């Protein structure tokens, strides 16, 4: 198993989610040119051979604030979000 991720600290000040952005501040669904991305992800196996990860699972704890999506066909992993917004109070 290989894991990587991002984190935004949220103290919930005044009962609201933080306005801190992740990545560019755009949601993954906005795609190339807006959303932040990682491209050409590769891992090294025990023999130092480069491999493309398979069977990726993504988790976003608060996907109305930040989200993640994969498009392995295009070799992109899009992520990010604005933080507090009308759907993430």
What does this structure look like?
- The structure is a single chain.
- The chain has 89 residues and is mainly beta.
- The chain has strands spanning 36-39, 43-44, 50-51, 67-71, 76-80.
- The strands form two sheets. A three-stranded antiparallel β-sheet has the order 1-5-4, with no helix packed on it. Strands 2-3 form a two-stranded antiparallel ribbon.
- It is elongated and about 50 Å long.
- 17% of the residues are buried.
Secondary-structure map with pairings?
Layout: E1 36-39, E2 43-44, E3 50-51, E4 67-71, E5 76-80
Antiparallel strand pairs: 1-5, 2-3, 4-5
Features:
single chain; 89 residues; mainly beta; 3-stranded antiparallel beta sheet; two-stranded antiparallel sheet; 5 strands
Number of strands: 5
N- and C-termini, Cα separation: 34 Å
How would you write the strand order of the largest sheet? Answer: 1-5-4
Shape: elongated
SSE pattern: EEEEE
Number of helices: 0
C-alpha-based Rg, rounded:
15 Å
Q: Please identify the structural class as seen in this structure.
A: mainly beta
Contiguous uncertain segments of 5+ residues? none
Fraction of residues in helix: under 10%
Strand content: 15-25%
Mean pLDDT: 89
Largest sheet: 3 strands, antiparallel
